[in-house]
């Protein structure tokens, strides 16, 4: 199957700093990528839809100024958690789908575990 | 009300048992449905897509009831390796967004 890679796999940072997470589709182009967040023992919550060359679409309740998304190329989307706080500690996972249609399997990255001290 | 709902469990079953999970969705515009498996601290992996006609893959059978807006997953002859969290997902064709339920935890015991 298609491969989606995330980096870093885990990161520990101090409160107030910003953290950037990268999501790459390694063997296909993706005009759309999705960012999810998962707290312990909870489900994956969709945060935003990342669109190549345009602004991301955020889900209700997700602060766009805190979670900056950039999708500058067809193989890379980045999520930056700005001024991170301990409550932002979570498992962040991206997913991508080959092509431009809204159908077909979504492939997930390995996830990035963020711990804010 | 959540867009996709599942019983979180946990379901504790002995090896060899048959176990069924249900999932309901509220958005009637949802077009595609999936079951994913997620192991602890890992990303979700697609288990199977769910079709209106029902589909089977080995010990796993998935069913979709559009009229009642629910999806089911049946696991026969449970193995220890089936222990995981099973996520139900619904996707709208317009947005392509995949929304998950909170997951159902299965623990298969010897």
Could you write a compact summary of the structure shown?
The complex is a heterodimer of chains A (117) and B (110). Chain A is mainly beta and 117 residues long. Chain A has no helices and eleven strands.
What keywords describe this structure?
heterodimer, A: mainly beta, 50% strand, B: 110 residues, 0% helix
Report on the architecture of this protein:
The complex is a heterodimer of chains A (117) and B (110). Chain A starts with a strand and ends with a strand. With 117 residues, chain A is mainly β. In chain A, the strands form two sheets. In chain A, strands 2, 4, 5, 6, 9, 10 and 11 form a seven-stranded mixed beta sheet that branches. Chain A has a four-stranded antiparallel beta sheet with strand order 1-3-8-7, with no helix packed on it. Chain A is globular. Chain A has no helices and eleven strands. Chain B has 110 residues and is mostly beta strands. Chain B has strands spanning 4-6, 11-14, 19-25, 30-38, 45-50, 55-57, 60-65, 70-75, 84-92, 98-100, 104-109. In chain B, the strands form two sheets. In chain B, strands 2, 4, 5, 9, 10 and 11 form a six-stranded mixed beta sheet that branches. A five-stranded antiparallel beta sheet of chain B has the order 1-3-8-7-6, with no helix packed on it. In chain B, β9 and β10 form a beta hairpin. The A-B interface holds A 32, 34, 36, 42-46, 49, 91, 93, 95, 97, 102-103, 105-106, 108-111, 113 and B 32, 41-46, 49, 87, 91-103.
């Amino acid at each position: 199957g298609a491969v989606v890679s995330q980096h870093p796999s885990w990161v520990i940072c101090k409160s107030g700093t910003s953290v950037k997470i990268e999501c790459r589709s390694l063997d296909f182009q993706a005009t759309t990528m999705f960012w999810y967040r998962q707290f312990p023992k909870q489900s994956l919550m969709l945060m935003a839809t990342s669109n190549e060359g345009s602004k991301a679409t955020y889900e209700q309740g997700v602060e766009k100024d805190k979670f900056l998304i950039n999708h500058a190329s067809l193989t890379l989307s980045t999520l930056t958690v700005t001024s991170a706080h301990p409550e932002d500690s979570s498992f962040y996972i991206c997913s991508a789908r080959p092509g431009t249609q809204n159908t077909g399997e979504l492939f997930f990255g390995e996830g990035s575990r963020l711990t804010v001290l | 009300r959540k867009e996709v709902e599942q019983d979180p469990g946990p379901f504790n079953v002995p090896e060899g048992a048959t176990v069924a999970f249900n999932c309901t969705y509220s958005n009637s515009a949802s077009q595609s449905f999936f079951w994913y498996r997620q192991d602890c601290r890992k990303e979700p992996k697609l288990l199977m897509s769910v079709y209106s006609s029902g589909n089977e893959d080995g010990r796993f059978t998935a069913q979709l009831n559009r009229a009642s807006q629910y999806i089911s997953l049946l696991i026969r002859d449970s193995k220890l390796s089936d222990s995981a969290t099973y996520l139900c997902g619904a996707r709208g064709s317009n947005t392509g967004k995949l929304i998950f339920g909170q997951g159902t935890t299965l623990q298969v015991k010897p």
